[in-house]
Amino acid sequence: MRKPLCDSLVARSKNPNMVFLTGDLGFMALEPLQQTMGERFINAGVAEQNMISVAAALARQGLDAWVYSIAPFCYARPFEQIRNDIAFHHLPVKLVGNGGGYGYGVMGPTHHAIEDYGILLALPNLTAYVPVFDQDIPAVIDAAGDSSTASYIRLGRGEQPADFEVPAYAPWRQLLKGHGAPVVAVGPLAGTYIQVLREMPEATRPSLWAVAELPIHRHAPPAELLEQIDRTGHLCVAEEHVERGSFGAEFALYLMKQGKQARISHLYARAHHYPRYGSQNYLRKASGLDPQSLLLALADPS
Q1: 215: cis peptide before it, omega within 30°?
Q2: Is 166 a member of any domain?
Q3: pLDDT tens per residue, range 45-90
Q4: Statement to judge: residues 130 and 278 lie in one domain
Q5: In Å, how far are 20, 119, 121, 260 from 72, measured between CA atoms?
Q6: Are 153 and 277 in contact (CB under 8 A)?
Q7: Cα 171 from chain centroid?
Q8: Whether 239 contacts 187, CB under 8 Å
Q9: Model confidence pTM above 0.85
Q10: Distance, CA of 174 to CA of 261 (rounded, Å)
């Protein structure tokens, strides 16, 4: 998603108040933005804590401050500065983390980001965006950029089938229709399920929903999804994030408060450490997040 990110930020950089800080990352992707912004493009070096504090100070002066790094370096290393300098002061800094979830595969747990939005959404005045498709990026940049609160944008890669027509961006989207129990997936993971689910007969196929903005209280689940949960009595939630602080846990609490009764199957990132490491898809399979694991969860919701 880095190319559409760069294109969208280049368009936004026409605003002279925009500043962009990177933690010495973005090579072979963000050069057009650097060339366009000139001195407003700041390489802060491998100094993420300083970078966050500088971005907060720039935002405090009324500038449109954006910060970029790979996801774990964007939130984990400078968490205290995000908490104290950005969140507690209600500053609308935009944090862009590339490679959410197991995106950096073989580089291991230090480079994975499977607890990111759970940690950040514990802070006040912060919204997380998890774009599902490359085509979502312009709308996400506009939404985050125009927001009066801090934002975390978790980038991955669009993984839908080549012949799938991507619907217009929305916080909640129904990607496939069916009469089975609904599946709700967070971010790009939703795209990995399209092919295997659309091969199912419509009578048993689940409706597939994608979520792209958190926390849930910002945008209530659509009435159609809630009706599907009531009708089937079953819901499957999938996300490339640990169970604690997860969207699945938040959604379950939301349904309980609404008086809904449903069996919930939750597919989530099972571990930081594995005996072997491989690609993102390898780790998804090890974690039970691959399409075949989804089919098993739907067949046996116990």
Answers
A1: yes
A2: no
A3: 999 999 999 999 999 999 999 999 999 999 999 999 999 999 999 9
A4: no
A5: 18, 11, 15, 35
A6: no
A7: 11
A8: yes
A9: yes
A10: 22
